[in-house]
# Entry
Amino acid sequence: MDLNSIRDAFDRVTKKQKLSSSESQEVIEQIHQEIEQALSRLQSVHGDSHKADHKLIIAELKTKLKEMAPLSKLEDTQKELNIALSKYPKLLEKSFNPDISKAYRYVDFDFHTVNQIIASHFYREGLFDLGDCFLNEAQEAEAAEKKSPFVEMYHILEAMKSVNLEPALNWATTNHEKLGQNGLDIELKLHRLQFVEILQKRGREEALKYARTFLTPFATKHMAEIQKLMACLLWAGRLDSSPYSDLLSPTHWDELAEELTLQFCNLWGQSYKSPLSMTIAAGVQGLPTFLKLMNVMIWKKQEWQSIKQLPVPVDLDREFQFHSLFVCPVSRDQASEENPPMLLSCGHVLCKQSITKLSKNNSTRPFKCPYCPSEVEAAQCRQLHL
# Structure
């Protein structure tokens, strides 16, 4: 799919539309000026000869309008725009296949799991009423118990948007041990933001009191950070012009909200991103490959619904790669414990079953590497661990 050609075509249509609008407006302005001038002349004519003068003025106006040929100009600009507009949809139809149903393949879903994933997505987005309604319609009442953690997370994030860290601090205090076991300093980051807010709004004394109560426990492991915050006390009332003005950046709030969401989901045993949104995003990225494969299989009269493994790789971005995997370039089989990847002496990698076939199940019989002129032996191959 060439997005550059689509973008260029869109720019041409936009340019034509602006040009057509500009030229049409110019023609209308010219007509308006001529009519205004004619009206002004008609109003200035007095006396017995005014009828003859009126006819002359109107005749001159007709002549000028005929010479201007406004209708012809408007038609020409509109015609050019219509040509550009008619070509653009054709390009879109050529570049984007509107019938994505060809890539559909029936899968025997576990509808209970799918319903939970959909409801969980609604709860993640704060659409609690919609999630409840969906579960009620799907008759999945037991899945509603997953709602309460998302309600708590949503309450915390909404409070942070209002510069209220109290719910987030309460959550961090409650989960202090678990967060500490993971070596996380999110609790310190929350206290740091709260300290800066108190220093800005309530002054040096209140900020110092807060630091003695809540920041002291972090001094042994984060002394440099605590010292930096203590130095901020010297700039009370003018922190924005101090060497520590970066602490006032709104990005700290956004980054901390994102980190809190990540750690909240981790502690609860959930993925950071919605499984539903990730599935849809991965499907959209792999859809062009599926459509091309389907067209080829129809031409070869193969059954799309019956294949158990895709004959071509589907390249996805790294965000969709959750664990290491290896697909044998010869057999196209994905590596497994029974069929692990093996490193040949020439440096290329094949799966064990492919090596067995190439060597005819003889560990000392040399065979040619499929990707270079080297001859190797199965006994010399070493197993790789993903």
